[in-house]
Amino acid sequence: MRHRPLTRLAHSRIASALQAGDLAVDATVGNAHDTRFLAEQVGEEGHVWGFDVQPSALAAAGQALAQQGLSARVTLVEDGHQALAERLPLQAQGRLAVVMFNLGYLPGSDKQITTRAATTLPALEAAVANLRPGGLLSVLTYRGHPGGDEEAAAVASWMADAQGRGCRYDVIESPGPILYLLTTPA
Ligand code: SAH
User: Fold this and answer.
1) pLDDT tens digit string along 28-38?
2) C-beta of 135 in contact with ligand 1 (< 6 A)
3) Atom of ligand 1 minimally distant from the CA of 27
4) Among 23, 40, 152, 154, which residue has the least CB neighbours within 10 Å?
5) Ligand 1 atom closest to the CA of 107, numbered from 1
6) Residue 101 Cα, ligand 1 centroid: separation in angstroms?
7) What is the pLDDT, as a whole number, of residue 2?
8) Which of 47, 34, 147, 141 is nearest to 88 (CA)?
9) Is the CB of 50 under 6 A from ligand 1?
């Protein structure tokens, strides 16, 4: 299930951070709701790279984006987000305005295919390394599913560590998911 209030909050913070022409990454395409949102925000001059390890999710995402006339501004990458640094073209490295993660598994799909701490943490590190100064990282974590509690705890300590390195973040807790909004130093 999508967590509407936290998703809405993330979208409104991201909308105020993004301008036409900006570059952004959706690190977990899934049903492509966030990919579409980012593509609309960056406009025709901007670009979005979307990562997912599930070919079926990317195929559906590609079709939906084409129907919405957004294909030209989105590159879908069939690879884990931990490969972000290697898969991002030179022109985008260190220039991303926003990176979004919606962790966990894709509802209605194979629940075994879930994000995991071991790959999520290197991906978060690569995301921060490729954000521009004052860039925004949005991470929605879920607990309760296999590996979820461990991943949520790992993300929490990664955030605290990133703060020690000059980033600032807000955490919005709920009984279910937790949203982190982190800004890199200006
Ligand atoms: N929990 C959310 C949906 C998360 S979808 C909700 O309820 O709305 C998470 C997506 O991440 C899935 O489509 C899954 O295929 C993808 N994923 C899993 N591991 C990944 C990885 N290492 N890199 C990129 N995407 C990954």
Assistant:
1) 999 999 999 99
2) no
3) 24
4) 40
5) 7
6) 8
7) 59
8) 47
9) no
Sign of the torsion angle spanned by Cα atoms 175, 4, 161, 150: positive
| Number of neighbouring beta carbons within 10 Å of residue 20 | 10
> According to the model, what pLDDT value does residue 175 have?
87
Over residues 29-48, mean pLDDT: 97
Give the confidence band of 150 by pLDDT, cuts at 50, 70, 90.
very high
CA of 123 to the centre of ligand 1 (A): 13
Q: Taking all residues of the chain, what is their mean pLDDT, rounded to a whole number?
A: 96
